[in-house]
Amino acid sequence: MSALENVLNELKKISYLRGAEALLSWDQETYMPEGAGDARSNQIAHISTLLHNTLVGETMSKNLGELVDLGSGKIRDESLPAREQRRLKEIWRDYHHAAALPSEFVEEVSKHASRSQQLWVKARQANDFSMFQPSLEKTVEYKHREIEYLGKLDTPYDTLLDEFEPHMTSAKVTELFSEIRSRLVPLIQDITAVKDRVDNSILKKDYPIEQQWDFGMSMLKAMGFDMVYGRQDKSAHPFTTSTHPTDVRVTTRLMANDLKSALLSTLHEGGHGLYEQGLPGEEADNPFGEAISLGIHESQSRLWENLVGLSRPFWAFAYPKLQEYFPESLTNVPEDDFYKAMNKVEPSLIRVEADEATYNLHIMVRYEIEKLLINENYPVAKLPELWNDKMEEYLGIRPDKDANGVLQDVHWSFGAIGYFPTYTLGNLYSAMWFNQAQQEIRDLNGKMAQGDLLPLRDWLREKIHRHGRSKTADELVREITGEELSAKPFLDYLEKKYQGIYGL
Amino acid sequence: MSALENVLNELKKISYLRGAEALLSWDQETYMPEGAGDARSNQIAHISTLLHNTLVGETMSKNLGELVDLGSGKIRDESLPAREQRRLKEIWRDYHHAAALPSEFVEEVSKHASRSQQLWVKARQANDFSMFQPSLEKTVEYKHREIEYLGKLDTPYDTLLDEFEPHMTSAKVTELFSEIRSRLVPLIQDITAVKDRVDNSILKKDYPIEQQWDFGMSMLKAMGFDMVYGRQDKSAHPFTTSTHPTDVRVTTRLMANDLKSALLSTLHEGGHGLYEQGLPGEEADNPFGEAISLGIHESQSRLWENLVGLSRPFWAFAYPKLQEYFPESLTNVPEDDFYKAMNKVEPSLIRVEADEATYNLHIMVRYEIEKLLINENYPVAKLPELWNDKMEEYLGIRPDKDANGVLQDVHWSFGAIGYFPTYTLGNLYSAMWFNQAQQEIRDLNGKMAQGDLLPLRDWLREKIHRHGRSKTADELVREITGEELSAKPFLDYLEKKYQGIYGL
Questions:
Q1: Which domains does chain A carry?
Q2: Bridge partners for B249 per DSSP
Q3: ipTM confidence score
Q4: pLDDT in tens, B335-365
Q5: Could you count the other beta carbons within 10 Å of the beta carbon of residue B197?
């Protein structure tokens, strides 16, 4: 076999192991008996070790090294077609990242992350940041070592950001947030001043979960999520996973007194799921078969959740159906009231419950804190106060306790620093895609109002999904929209929509 | 680390991989989207390869070789405690078996098995043995090569039998079947002569599957199957699997017009499941944490399915509950009529639908044919006729077509020759266990009639489950019953029970 064939063969093994790991994790959150947790951790840890060993093992190093300079990533044979050079570059990117971190370091960090996450659960329950503080301090130390191993980019924080959103810089993110802040903070203030104009109490009535499940499934199918190659189940926290593009699994969480939550989570995870199902099957075992970044992934979920799922055209189609599922609660509720209820904007303390407008201010709080932590050695002990100050500054409300403030998210506990910005990037991308789709799909709103969502899915598949990682996020944005990533389309969308709903 | 620690460490990896493989397979039969079959096959095949490579790899060979002569299995340090010597012997047994087969051979056979199974499905559908014949001939050839690699025991067939039922010989099995034949064939003939004395049409009424599921779950819990460490799901063919003793999964199949099938399959798989849950957790990653043999495993399922689930004491407790689940069909059916219906004996063509008495004659047919195939080079082409002749001789009925004859079972298609006898061995063991339990558990029948099944589960756990593979089947039989394995207890049980039911 040639060096390339050997490399691709190793990647196949990695792909199979990732599939197994994904199933073990999916099962842990869905059907695993509660007493099996320890055994499952051992199984997942061993598969992770095998994954790592295969990626940086002798076979891979030797053969990839014949094709690429392992230190710099320079392709040795410049006469290769551009696409093949790109593929090698992406393979090298993964290799280099894995090989840069010594395996003892990875193991140490992984054990710390596991302990830290358990501590975080207890600290949040006890509403006691001091229980978690030493552990988070240790995490920050580990992050600095990680940055040393991986190499510093523009700033130390950029190295972390780059892991979740390749090629994104904190300079760009800061610029985007500055635009967001300048337009979104006043918009939220204007809305808050007239907040009683929208009443969402109708969404908190009694909605039996069986019907919620059935309605959600019908929407998932309407989006074009293919049940031959996927499924939906229930879990404590909704998520999407894939063992292969032919096996994509989304989950949802149902609550009898909350119509909005499960419905939007189904559309959200369904958007992630469509991306996974749309990745090119013929590339399934190499980077070109993978998603570009967390931000691009999030753009797919947010597009379906918000730009579709909170739009008038969608509900023109879906609301009469929803009324059939819940005649007692909804028969006498006009569509317009329902639409407004779904779109109520209200500053709140908890990110995962936030509406589409205030959501990005929650992210901005976290982003600014992360940068201070990593680039400025801001003391961990002072995070609770910093958090509360920023919430007050941007959202006009101050957390009553740390459990509803700095302790609310799991991410930092397992070392995911640099992850949060991808949520907002997803929102920004999604608005750019949706604008473009409106221009390219004839009468998209009319089609949506008829329940014909497949043209949109197919457009996303054609423009985004089928390319996998063969393009960078930047390239994708330019090719699809002809422009650079900007917050303007998203902010325009929010202002226009909410000025209408709130009569501003 | 010492050589032993290294060996145990490799076994841990094997155990984790087996857990992953078990979950991938379980999911394939329960929740996997139908389009994911190819990807799943690749994932399972890769995990199997890793399993094999770990078991016979350099680390294992080197370290096990320091403790055991890899050729003969002789323990090097005879001063080791007997239990540790036994453990090493069992580890070597697995190692030796895996190392004896060249990996190219294993791969070739595995590919053949996969194609052969697909051919078998088509041949059975088409009722055309000639479609399957060449493939089965090839399987027999592979079996001969396998026997060469593994080493011939008393006869070539004994080598195959030993893989499924370690240390069992065909001489012993033949002796047992001769006893079974001499007493069971006449019993079946006597019953057939008065077959109208029992009517089981009541079991074929309308039994909604939701209630069947709920009743089955309540029985599974009554047996002491622990839902903290296990679960039940639905699949096309019922089975039991385990990713770890803390994660044991049984499945069942429900049919609305068949009350007996799902109920007995739940008790059957529940029996397998109790064995898996009762294996010693502290030995989970070495052979002492595994089941002894297929026959001993089957003794657990058959004990709960037949000796408990088809007994008067069990139904004294369970029937009033069953009536509550199905008042329309059962309110006016006396318990005695129901008990007899469940115990109707009738020669039939299909093994998996056979009652507990005729079942073993189905196995005898297969056992005799397998011995002829392997030891006497009996021509595969003549199997259909041989099958039909033996069915007529032992059961008094002749298959109308090969789909209901020689083509009915999947086993031979994937190379499982030597497996069938373990079903009957399971029945024989189960009767010996149950006799002994009746002597050792005070008023077992009275307890069962009260629904108190835990003393029986705990007795099985104490006597059988907790020992894992630290004893051989022979030792277990002698230690529990003070006797050698014999067909007498099972035949005594059948004669007494069915002479009563049929008034012979």
A1: 3-154 (no CATH), 205-343+422-468 (1.10.1370.30)
A2: B231, B241
A3: 0.94
A4: 999 999 999 999 999 999 999 999 999 999 9
A5: 13
SS3 B420: coil
Give which of A15, A26, A38, A42 to mutate to test B binding, by max B Cβ within 10 Å.
A42
Alpha helices (H) in A57-168, listed in sequence order = 58-67, 82-100, 103-126, 129-150, 156-164
Residue among A380, A203, A27, A104 at smallest CA distance from B24: A27
Among B10, B31, B228, pick the best mutation site for testing chain A contact (most A Cβ within 10 A). Answer: B31
Block residue for tokens 């050079």 = A85
Global pTM reads 0.95
pLDDT reading at A459 higher than 90? yes
CA pair distance A418, A371, nearest whole angstrom: 9
**Residue A442: strand, helix, or coil:** coil
The first and second tokens of residue B19, run together, are 């857990």
Q: At A316, which helix (H) or strand (E)? A: helix A312-325
| Residue B252 phi, psi dihedral angles, 5° rounding | -140, 165
**Strand intervals (E) in A176-324:** 230-234, 240-244, 247-252
Question: Which residues in A have their CB inside 8 Å of a CB on B?
Answer: 12-13, 16-17, 19-20, 23-24, 27, 31-36, 38-40, 42-43, 45-47, 50, 226-231, 233, 243-244, 246-248, 284
> Is residue B269 annotated as part of the catalytic site, yes or no?
yes
- Model confidence pLDDT, tens digit, residues B60-82: 999 999 999 999 999 999 999 99
Strands B230-234 and A240-244: unpaired
Joined tokens for residue B447? 């307890």
What is the phi/psi pair of residue B69, to 5°?
Answer: -70, 115
Residues linked to residue A247 through DSSP beta bridges, in sequence order: A244
